[in-house]
Amino acid sequence: MKHFFILLLFVSCKGLCLSDQAGEDPIVVAASSYLPPYVIKDNDSGIQLEILKAAFKSQGISNIVVQYMPNKRVEQQLLQGKVDIALNFASGASTNIYQSEPLLRYQNVAISLAEQNLKIDSIYDLAGKSVLGFQNATNFIEAPFKSVTRILRSYDEVVNQEAQVDHLMKGWVDVIILERRVFLYYLEQYKQTAEIKPFVVHPIFNEAPRPAFFNSEVLKDTFNTGLGQIVESGEYQAIIRLDGTEYAQISSHELRK
Questions:
Q1: Is residue 26 classed exposed, middle or buried when 0-12, 13-18 and 19+ CB atoms within 10 A define those classes?
Q2: How far is CA 244 from the centre of its chain?
Q3: pLDDT by residue (tens digit) across 147-191?
Q4: What angle do CA 195, 241, 181 make, to 5 degrees?
Q5: Domain map of the chain by residue range?
Q6: Distance in angstroms (rounded) separating the CA atoms of residues 111 and 101
Q7: Cβ(199)–Cβ(164) under 8 Å?
Q8: Looking at domain 2-105+210-255, which of 3.40.640.10, 3.40.190.10, 1.10.10.10, 3.90.180.10 is its CATH number?
Q9: What is the pTM of this model?
Q10: Best label site of 66, 127, 177, 239, fewest CB within 10 Å?
Q11: CATH fold group of domain 108-206
Q12: At what angle do helices 180-190 and 162-169 cross, to 10 degrees?
């Protein structure tokens, strides 16, 4: 019983220290600059950020600062201990990097113009085509995608995913590869100023869970507890139900209602 009391006291003190530290120093989150509706830089919002903030808020933590950067730099900053949390981290959990429960699941897809009449039923059907992916896609998307990029007519990646929609609609590439909600968001923006051609969505990739990555196991556990609480309360479902086109028209205040 004595040992149990000491252990309980240690855990309680550790949790209190985390809360005190969070009250004084911000928790720094690294996120991609171009990932709406999951991350929206203009108002520090988006589906993933709202889930993250809501989970921490349920644990009494609200001092969160988001830093925006390309995916590759996100990884570097986390590994160097310059940020506390990374929302996109292709390397996965490793020594001193702790992976949370999934915030949500991404569905990467290949998209082509209907007029091209392309038959794309598997990753291998991309062979011989010009493809434009998002930055670091070869590390985020499952095998054999990375090896298949070597037999494409051309392959490139962009940080700003809005450019992917523009390149596709102008016929500059055969196929773009990006997450379904991200595509819907940018498509909604694009059609305000340009013509949208009929397109075909090819669901050739597996659904991918998206956890957050932490340089503190205590912080990760705190987040997981909060995530469980907002799922149970229904707040999580209120955030996740929005797709790209809906999210573009809703404010952070309305989202939290």
A1: middle
A2: 13
A3: 999 999 999 999 999 999 999 999 999 999 999 999 999 999 999
A4: 35
A5: 2-105+210-255, 108-206
A6: 29
A7: no
A8: 3.40.190.10
A9: 0.79
A10: 127
A11: D-Maltodextrin-Binding Protein; domain 2 (3.40.190)
A12: 70
Residue corresponding to tokens 């595509």: 183
- CA 207 to CA 210: how far, in whole Å? 10
CA–CA–CA angle 111, 242, 197 (5° rounding): 30
User: Hey, how many other C-beta atoms are within 10 angstroms of the C-beta on 9?
Assistant: 10
Token pair belonging to 30: 């690294």
In tens, the pLDDT along 167-177 reads 999 999 999 99
